Amino acid sequence: MENNESKIAIGTWSWGVGGFAGGNIVFGNNLNSPELTSVFNKAINSGLNVFDTAFAYANGESERILGELINKYDRNQIIISDKFTPGMENNEVSNPLMEMLEGSLERLGTDYIDIYWIHNAADIEKWTPLLIDAVNSGKVKRVGVSNHSLEQLKRVEEILLPAKIKVTAVQNHFSLLYRKSIEDGLLEYCKENNIDFFSYMVLEQGALSGKYDENHLLPAESNRGKKYNSIFPKIEELLSKLKDIGSKNNQATAAQVAAAWAIWKGTIPILGITKEEQVEEASKIINLRVTEKDYLELEELATNSNVDTFGGWEGNS
Predict the structure, then answer these.
(1) What is the C-alpha separation between 230 and 81, in angstroms, rounded?
(2) Domain ranges, ordered by start, for the chain
(3) CA distance 31 to 18
(4) pLDDT by residue (tens digit) across 37-96?
(5) I need a surface site. Which of 68, 194, 231, 298 has the fewest CB within 10 A?
(6) Beta strands in the chain (DSSP E)
(7) Does the domain spanning 9-304 belong to CATH 3.50.50.60?
């Protein structure tokens, strides 16, 4: 992690409308730059300067919105995390990764990406070597992989080694309800090899935010509503404990406690933020002082809920 990076990243998956993974489809949102300008400004002023996006998020609309918001700031103030998504490439060009990267740069209005990821582990042998051109072009400062298992990460490292390019970041689904990266040794490997672990879906798309339960459901027609509304009865005790711990820690929210747990485990949580009050909540997370006993109890309750939140897009199960 670079010295000027905040310990929490802001996720922009829910920004923008369009495509199969737009904010309207996945989250039930309809957000554009006018609704997000004050949110972005508050984030920067609060020291939250890492923004995670992808072409896959609303077919580039998330990138476009982020680009509109960052153009009023010194580019050096902003850390941009962006992704090449296998499965969305243009196979009519010689280097589909570079083509997607160029499109992302144009939408973002920048000439480089701070961290560029391969978004999934589909055909590692084909896509990994194409990162070499991206790094050598100077348009990518750091390389990361997302939704890769430990075995897959090691293979990526082998492919990039002759070019003297190191993987310095991993981004995987990681939450109290989904701890596969602990179970398979990936998180520990990252710690041992100075690889930043970015955890996404820490709040399970809002299911662990404390704002929803079986009596206050997520938008029913959104993908997250279809996935999580049925499991709220199973995580009732976990949600109650998150709120209880928060009440003992300066009236912190359940969302703050769930994200603080992810930091305690040694990860950089990516939090989907769409409102100014969420920025305020996020900026206070790193100062929470939750006891190890409380964190371990949360893990036990999560395990006992017997809920599996694996996403079919992950490919690392």
Answers:
(1) 32
(2) 9-304
(3) 11
(4) 999 999 999 999 999 999 999 999 999 999 999 999 999 999 999 999 999 999 999 999
(5) 194
(6) 9-11, 50-52, 79-84, 113-118, 140-146, 167-173, 196-200, 268-272
(7) no
